[in-house]
Amino acid sequence: MAEGSFAENETLSVDRRPYVVPAPAFLGFIDLQPGRNWSHECLYVWCRLSDDTVEAQSGAFPPGLPEGRRLILLAAGPDVPRWAIAGDKCCAD
Q1: Rg of the chain over all Cα atoms, to the nearest angstrom
Q2: Which residues are within 8 A (CB) of 30 and not within 5 positions of it... i.e. 6 or more apart?
Q3: DSSP SS3 for 28
Q4: 24-70 confidence digits (pLDDT tens)
Q5: Which among 49, 44, 50, 47 is positioned nearest to 17, based on CA atoms?
């Protein structure tokens, strides 16, 4: 999950392309093939704050977050290699 919520019109990189957030939302990021190098299947999950809408978007790369923002690990499956979740190096562009 990206740290904090995103404001409307805030810009970040989604699947290595600029993305302008259409409405205030939280961003969840799910690596569907942990332990593999990029590019591979992943999901961006947007949870809008105004109406509880949830939208999933497929991708192949982790998000590029604005300066000072980071991904926070909420959970990892038992088959995820330790090196894939250790430190911030796993989530760098």
Answers
A1: 13
A2: 42, 43, 45
A3: strand
A4: 999 999 999 887 887 899 999 999 999 989 999 999 999 999 999 99
A5: 44
**Tokens 């332990």 -> residue:** 35
Say what the pLDDT of residue 86 is.
59
User: Over 90: is that where the pLDDT of 77 sits?
Assistant: no
| Three-class DSSP category at 60 | coil
Strand partners, 44: 29, 57
Coil, helix or strand for 47? strand
Q: How far is CA 90 from CA 26, 33, 38, 49, 60, in A?
A: 21, 13, 10, 28, 14
